[in-house]
Specification:
By secondary structure, the protein is an alpha/beta fold. The chain has a single domain, classed as 3-Layer(aba) Sandwich (Oxidized Rhodanese, domain 1). A five-stranded parallel beta sheet has the order 1-8-7-2-4. A hairpin with a 4-residue loop joins strand 5 and strand 6. The longest helix is centred in the middle third of the chain and has 12 residues. The radius of gyration is 14 Å and the shape is globular.
């Protein structure tokens, strides 16, 4: 099985600059992607979606369609880094070679007031993002 790199958002951004062929896949729900925000250029492939969240049975085939070459680097992002790690593990089992879990995700961990984006995450680090 392939090794999965765990990179904080600034290191993941640097990795993307050094690997222009890399694909950034946002595995959050459709609503999170659209309304909370997303990294510029991220491709949405929910690992789980809906209310209540249910596993996406088309996750692996969808990623394979977007990234047909297992040698292409793939970065995975979710809210805090847990679903993205699960996604990376699924693709490692499919033979994909260069996989990156973006630790802290888009919003980072909860702070003492149960708020996100104050301690870490893509937005916290000021990396390029957009929202609807």
């Amino acid at each position: 099985m392939s090794e999965i790199l765990n990179l904080k958002p600034p290191a993941a951004w640097q990795f993307m600059q050094e690997h222009p062929d890399a694909v950034l896949i946002d595995v959050r729900t459709t609503c999170e992607h659209l309304f909370v925000g997303r990294p510029v250029g991220a491709v949405l492939v929910p690992l789980k979606d809906g209310l209540p969240m249910q596993s996406n049975p088309n996750f692996v085939p969808s990623v394979k369609e977007i990234v047909p070459d297992p040698a292409t680097p793939i970065l995975f992002l979710c809210r805090s880094g847990h679903r993205s790690l699960e996604a990376a593990r699924l693709m490692a089992a499919e033979g994909y070679q260069t996989l990156v879990n973006i630790d802290e995700g888009f919003e980072g961990p909860l702070d003492a007031d149960k708020h996100r984006s104050t301690l870490g995450g893509w937005r916290f680090h000021g990396l390029p993002w957009e929202q609807n």
